[in-house]
Structure formats: C-alpha cells, structure tokens
Specification:
Helix content: 10-25%
CATH topology: Purple Acid Phosphatase, chain A, domain 2
Number of helices: 5
Shape: globular
CATH class: Alpha Beta
CATH superfamily: Metallo-dependent phosphatases
Radius of gyration: 18 Å
Largest sheet: 7 strands, mixed
Structural class: alpha/beta
Number of domains: 1
CATH architecture: 4-Layer Sandwich
Bound molecules: fe (ii) ion
Distance between the termini: 26 Å
C-alpha cells in the first residue's frame, strides 16, 4: 500500500543549496522506522498484536521496496517495557540486516538501556550525523517519567547555530514527540511542549528541509516555513487520526522512506503492509 502518492512527494530544494547531482548519482536513501514497541519476550503483544511480527512484516516490505537504505532512523518507542532483552533483540536484527542505524528515545524507552544495548550515542541531547551533502539533527525530546516531551534549550540553540553555520547543507530534524498539535485531543496532551520553538526556526533557516517524528502512530504532513512536517506510522498499531479519545485505526503498519538529493531535493512517502498478522482489537481503550 502506498501513501503520499505513488512516486512519493517531491520537495524542492532551497536556492543556493549545493549543485544538482550529476546524471546517475544515486540519492541518499533513508528509512524511518518508529514506535516498534518491542517486548523482551518473543510473544509480547500490544493491543492484540505481536509487535515483533508486525516489525518483521514492515521490514519485509522495506526489503522489497526500498533496500538497501544508506541508514535507518528509529524515532523512539523502540521497546514497550524498558527491558534490555528487547533492545538486544533489535540490535541483533539490525546487525543481521547489515544496516547503519541511528536511534532516538521515546517515552516508552529507557535512554540508558537504549544507549547501553543498542546505540551508544542515543539520548545525548542533540546529535548531528552527516550523510553525504545532508545533515541529520537528532533530538532527544523525552522527559523522565512523562508521556509528553520537550526540546532542551541547549539543543534548540545548537540547532540554530548549526543551521546558521552550514547554510549550504540541507538538514533533517528528527525527534520522537510531535512539535505541533495534530488534531487528536488525547495525543495533543503529550506532544513536545515547546515544539513551537522548533517550528519558528524553520521560518528562519532555508536549509531546514523537514522535521520528522513518531509517537502519534499515524502519518502526518504539514509545513512550517521552509520545512516539511512529517510523521510516520508505527510498525505496530495505529491510532485513529482526529479522535478525541484513544482509538485504534484499522490501517496496517508501515514506514516512511526518504530520498535525499545533493541539491536539497527531498522525496518521501509512506508504505504500509497489506494487513496485520493477527485480528485487530478495536475495542481497547488505552495502551
Ligand atoms: Fe509509541
């Protein structure tokens, strides 16, 4: 299943960012996988779904459609129960797939276990990774013991400084929590409380090409200034867009793909599997 158009969405680069890649130059390919909610036990289920099984179904789809990626960005809630065995399982799978990966924590993660077991640089305030002509700015937006999040003041300053100092390098911002209300009352009580600060920076910096997040278990598209605002579906269960209270959506799991061209052009889209491995429990009233 394809969303955002069959060939994805083209987002034109800002004038002055680099040069168009020559004919035959392959863009950088990224995959965003989010809200895996893996359990330590292989039979762990979230709202009736075995989250290892849904994760594997999404991986299978990605391996058919967008493989190999240059990197995978995992945007939080990698595990559901904050236990090391779930992280170790994920590390083993990513190593088996031989992919480069970057992780940021979500509200269901333990930043310490995530760093210890899977990605030593996860959860370090602001992290900057360079991929060819592009920079990835990865924010830890979690607050200890809270479902909602916030962006650290020092991280906001560092983002501003980096984008100002590197105007010719297009950048993507990744975080777990949504930086603006998405129109769902219950989810909007647990976004990034100062996300407007990030959106304001998108007005100032033409090289901020997109802000991407997870947490809301649904796709989202918007714009703030120069940046596309993009969320990806969960690899596990989906939340119903626009719902006042907790409600599951029947849409199947999926992932976001991105192709980053040297001149700042960004192509992106959502792919979903054909369905859930097991029947969906739509009567659940929370998670
Ligand atoms: Fe989640």
């Amino acid at each position: 299943m394809v969303e955002d158009g069959n060939s994805g969405q083209q987002i034109n680069g800002a004038a002055g960012i680099g040069q168009r890649a020559g004919a035959g130059t392959r863009p950088i390919r990224l995959l965003q996988l989010t809200d895996l909610h893996l359990y330590a036990e292989s039979d762990g289920r979230l709202l009736g779904q075995n989250t290892r099984a849904t994760f594997e179904s999404v991986l299978n789809l990605a391996r058919q459609r967008h493989w190999p990626p240059d990197a995978v960005v995992l945007t939080g809630d990698l595990v559901h129960d904050e236990r090391s065995d779930a992280y170790l399982y994920l590390r083993q799978r990513l190593q088996q797939l031989d992919v480069r990966y970057f992780c940021i924590p979500g509200n269901h993660d333990s930043p310490r276990l995530l760093a210890d077991c899977l990605d030593p640089r996860a959860g370090s305030g602001l992290r900057i990774e360079s991929l060819g002509a592009w920079d990835l700015l990865l924010i830890d937006s979690t607050l200890p013991g809270q479902e909602g999040g916030a962006i650290d003041e020092l991280a906001l300053q560092a983002i501003d400084s980096h984008l100002s100092a590197n105007p010719d390098r297009p950048a993507l911002i990744f975080l777990h929590h949504h930086p603006l209300p998405v129109g769902s009352r219950w989810i909007d009580t647990m976004g990034a409380e100062n996300g407007a600060r990030l959106l304001a920076q998108a007005e100032l910096h033409p090289n901020m090409r997109a802000i991407l997040w997870g947490h809301i278990h649904q796709s989202f598209q918007g714009r703030s200034g120069h940046a596309q605002l993009l969320a990806a579906p969960s690899t596990s269960v989906q939340f119903l867009p626009g719902s006042k209270d907790f409600a599951l959506d029947t849409l199947p799991p999926g992932y976001r793909w991105l192709e980053l061209h040297d001149d700042g052009l960004l192509e992106t889209g959502i792919e979903r599997t054909d369905g859930y491995p097991d029947p969906l429990s739509l009567s659940m009233d929370g998670y």
